[in-house]
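User: Predict Transglutaminase-like domain-containing protein's structure from this.
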Amino acid sequence: MSQTAASSLKTLGVDLLQKQNARLHHTEEYHENTSLIVRRGQVFQLKLTFDRELKDNDKVVVQLSVGEKPMESNETLLSMDLRSGQDSQCWCANISNTSGKECLVAVTSPADAAVGKYFLSVKTGLHIYNPGNKVVYVLFNPWCEADTVFMPNDTERLEYVLSDTGYIYVGSVQNIVGRPWNFGQFEEDVLDSCMYLLDKSKLKQKVRKDSVTVSRAMSALVNSNDESGVLWGNWSGTYTGGTSPVAWTGSAPILQKYYKTKKPIRFGQCWVFSGVLTTVMRCLGIPARSVTNFASAHDTEENLKVDIYMNEKGEKLDDMTSDSVWNFHVWNDVWMKRPDLPQGFDGWQALDATPQEISQGVYQCGPCPLKAIRSGEVYLLYDSKFVFAEVNADRVFWQVKNVNGKHKPVKLREETKAIGKSISTKAVGKNTREDITAQYKFPEGSPEERKAVEKACTYLSSSNLAVCESTTPLPPLKAGIQLDVESEKVLWLGNPINLNIIVQNSSAGAWTINLVASCQLQSYTGKVEANLGSIKQTVQTEGKPVIQLPLNIAADAYMKTVTSVEDELLIKVNIIAEIQETNEKLTDELTLTFQYPPLKVEMPETAKINEDFTCSFIFKNTLSVPLEKCKLHVEGLGIFKMETIDQGDIMPGRIIKSQIICAPNKTGEKKLVAKLTSNQVKGISEEKMITITA
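Assistant:
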């Protein structure tokens, strides 16, 4: 046997030094702690063990490979010679210390390394050590200045990358509600689910370096409309064969089930798509937040106008337009530089996984710079026209009259300040809502805001330019009439709806007013589920500064629809007044949301790791109606996986109490989220914090 063969070096083992690397790379929270999870652009250490001491002429090559047929030509195979020195532009590995048969190696990845799941092997001469289970996950790095996702502020990184719980804001402008949401980006299988999505995207290895392309691909893959992605969108109000969108409390159960079955999970609506996309982005290392736009326009005609048609009773008609105004819509912002755009558009980018419109042949939306939306530069990539309209479109009300047997729409009014209100996200480091409307648009009616709208109009397709004229403010009414709606402060489900339509006459003139008012049950997307009642009256204002007209709806009129539709519904009141003498038209609207009794969570403030504690859930049905088929959904990251407990029917006045024995497996501040659902009440949420100590 030759001297060379006898002394050829063999690798016996590789220690990934997970703990020390994870601490330096801010990845210690990930459940996959048997693998190595690192962030690009930052050095990490490996310990190699050989069958003898290392000599100066030994050639050792550390290899990282992706996929079944790795090749250096397409960057799916990376080979790093330990003797080759350093190079900040590409992957390199250097010996930092040797001790007997052990060797400490420092591996550095470039700040634009392709993110993904790499398999590690070590080549020494003809010998290749290929353990098969040594996996290195490479993520984006918001701590690295040279990375496109670099975020300089540490408290912001803590919130937008490392925080695994938060809130998603829902409701209406008048009643904004923070819904607790567990993002759970560090939970079991979530990282592997994200890697599976990366592979499913079919993005080439070279393109996986680019945060813009990766985030756009993920916005397509979180919905199932193309490529059988994560979530099946459903707004039908019927969710048999799946989970109702209102029942989810977090993203981890969705991604875990998707990873196991490789089939779309049923069902999602906008807040679920957004919650899951926040999880995927944070898991991959891209700073992200869920963002809610109240009174959100869905402009299908690209003319920055949303038309709303009402019949002669004042009831909204759904079948005359594909445009809509959603009570709220939830999407995402992701933080990154935009080297693909002119200078000045780095920072927050809007990204949306809810399948609304096709973009480049696929249901995807963004990333689109908030700075471009704010300034009206809607020619910039991606989908900036659509996002601009969501926060800026004008709303036009029409009444469809029957004239000689034909439907004739009559324009009632145009609103320039009704869309894109109270744009909300969770505040950094606090459990409160932050209003970020100013990051999306200038103040309504300001010269800068109208200038941005005018600029946006110049980029719309020419066939629509005619309807994108600048809207001049309406002159004050000659008649001096004002409309208002009064309602009880709290509308409890199961109680009658008592409204007062108020006509105020400030001019002391004698006017004849044809007034109609309607009350409808609608979903959050504006879909009409039931007409509950209307009034039609002609009133004389002479000698009457204030006229009040009651509009009362019995509980029976709405409870059947509320029970049969599996979405959370709201009350929409529309009023139309026509002044005969001046032919002037006024409209007003009001959104009312139902109130529910609270769900209480009781548990200790602190507990020890791996020691049981009891958590109790208490609910008293103070409503006048029974709640049927009640279910309690509970989830606590680091405490237990999502559980659903059947509670049966809860009659008025009855109290239920459920208990769960919890055994926490992670230290730190943990949050438990609970949600009660039933046929009548679609979701009562509560949360409770607990500190787990060692």
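The first strand starts at residue 11 and ends at 15.
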